[in-house]
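Summary of Year 1 activities. Much of the first year was spent building the evaluation harness for sequence design. The harness presents a backbone, in tokenized form, and records the residue chosen at every position. We chose the following record to illustrate the format because it has been used consistently in internal testing since the harness was completed.
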């Protein structure tokens, strides 16, 4: 879709991991243990696309974070695939169920960074990059405040 379009991206703003949250007793059991994987409606679990297409994993979509996480806690799905920081925020601050689910690092996950982008205003991206450099202490403080990791 980007072919022929000059997209300008900022420096990395925040790191993220999209991965599988499981109950603690299901951690490190391997991908073969994932038969029903939950996701947020409209979210694609790119890391598992081949297994999904092959019929090895069934996707169960949910429109909200809390209901999705509750499905995983109740073992109605084998794991929930979503942003790990978002999952932990929901578990710890919204649901008040710290540790009910954990990120299973042994399973495939996607690690990358969020960027600001523009096709029409590259000068704003340039200014934003300067802001990130000049206000790095503020940016770090905000990441810490909102429990965003620098993975």
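For this record, the design step produced the sequence shown next.
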């Amino acid at each position: 879709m980007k072919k022929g379009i000059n997209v300008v991206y900022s420096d990395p703003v925040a790191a993220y991991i999209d991965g599988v949250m499981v109950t603690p007793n299901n951690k490190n059991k391997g991908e073969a243990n994932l038969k029903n994987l939950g996701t947020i409606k409209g979210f694609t679990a790119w890391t598992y696309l081949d297994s999904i297409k092959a019929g090895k994993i069934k996707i169960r979509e949910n429109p909200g974070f809390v209901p999705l996480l509750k499905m995983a806690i109740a073992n109605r799905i084998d794991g929930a695939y979503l942003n790990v920081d978002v999952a932990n925020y929901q578990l710890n601050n919204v649901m008040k169920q710290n540790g009910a689910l954990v990120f299973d690092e042994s399973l495939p996950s996607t690690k990358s960074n969020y960027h600001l982008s523009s096709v029409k205003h590259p000068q704003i991206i340039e200014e934003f990059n300067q802001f990130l450099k000049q206000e790095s202490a503020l940016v770090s403080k905000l990441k810490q405040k909102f429990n965003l990791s620098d993975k």
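The two ends are 29 Å apart (CA to CA). Quantitative recovery figures across the full test set are reported in Table 2.
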